[in-house]
Write a structure and sequence with these properties.
Elements: E1 9-12, E2 19-22, E3 29-31, E4 44-47, E5 58-62, E6 69-75, E7 78-82, E8 90-98, E9 107-111, E10 124-133, E11 138-141, E12 206-215, E13 218-220
């Protein structure tokens, strides 16, 4: 006989203004029996809408791997930043991102970056039966979180002024080698480079494995805009 997993709803409880908090702080989570602990396997994880004034920034940083959950909900006026490694992921039967437009009401799932080729460390990776980006303020983004080494990321001897990113196909004036797949990209993008003062990060990586996706929001992995200064 296999015991059924215990499914508990664990809810984030902090609404501090202009806060940066950490996922693994047990005091920030409430269980239905009034105790406090970090979400564990098969929990229903709720980071609720932040509807109280004031409406300034609020970020939760995750630095440890997640177990698989039953469901995961990220509400508006919240940003969850994944800094817990390339191979870690949010895995749940249902993943819901519920942002809204206006008044800084977005719900944003993002990652850390940029990085060098030898230090590829973060991406947004979601595994779900159903992924729901409920509305226009629902955002998954790794924009600007790719390589910070310039257009010659994959060709250390080829750096030249005005190089731009080379993922898939060569960027404008690029001397770096192309790399990766155009049709099934997995790696982060390479950055642009003019001089050490004008380096820009490439786009990061977003990986979504879902049986069903409802996308009324946006999924972004753009590079940082270059400039001659």
């Amino acid at each position: 006989v296999v015991d059924e997993p215990v499914i508990e709803t664990v809810t984030w409880n902090d609404n501090t203004d202009n806060a940066t908090c950490y996922w693994d702080d047990a005091t920030k989570w409430n269980c239905s029996d009034g105790t406090h602990r970090v979400p564990c396997a098969y929990d229903k994880v709720v980071i609720p809408n932040r509807s109280s004034y004031p409406y300034h920034g609020y970020t939760i940083i995750a630095t440890n791997p997640f177990p698989p959950f039953t469901s995961f909900y990220l509400g508006y006026r919240r940003t969850l930043t994944l800094k817990n490694g390339w191979d870690n992921k949010i895995e749940a039967e249902t993943v819901t991102i519920f942002g809204e437009t206006g008044d800084n009401r977005a719900a944003t799932l993002t990652c850390g970056g940029g990085f060098t080729e030898s230090q590829i460390s973060n991406r947004v990776w979601i595994v779900a039966d159903e992924l729901k980006l409920e509305n226009a303020g629902s955002v998954i983004s790794s924009s600007g979180y790719g390589s910070c080494n310039g257009g010659a990321w994959h060709d250390a001897t080829g750096m030249a002024e005005s190089d731009s990113g080379s993922y898939g196909g060569r960027g404008t004036a690029s001397h770096g080698h192309t790399y990766g797949s155009i049709t099934e990209p997995t790696a982060p993008g390479s950055g642009s480079w003019r001089t050490s003062n004008y380096k820009q990060n490439g786009g990061g990586a977003v990986r979504i494995q879902a049986k069903r996706v409802v996308n009324n929001g946006s999924v972004n992995a753009t590079g940082t805009g270059g400039s001659f200064g």
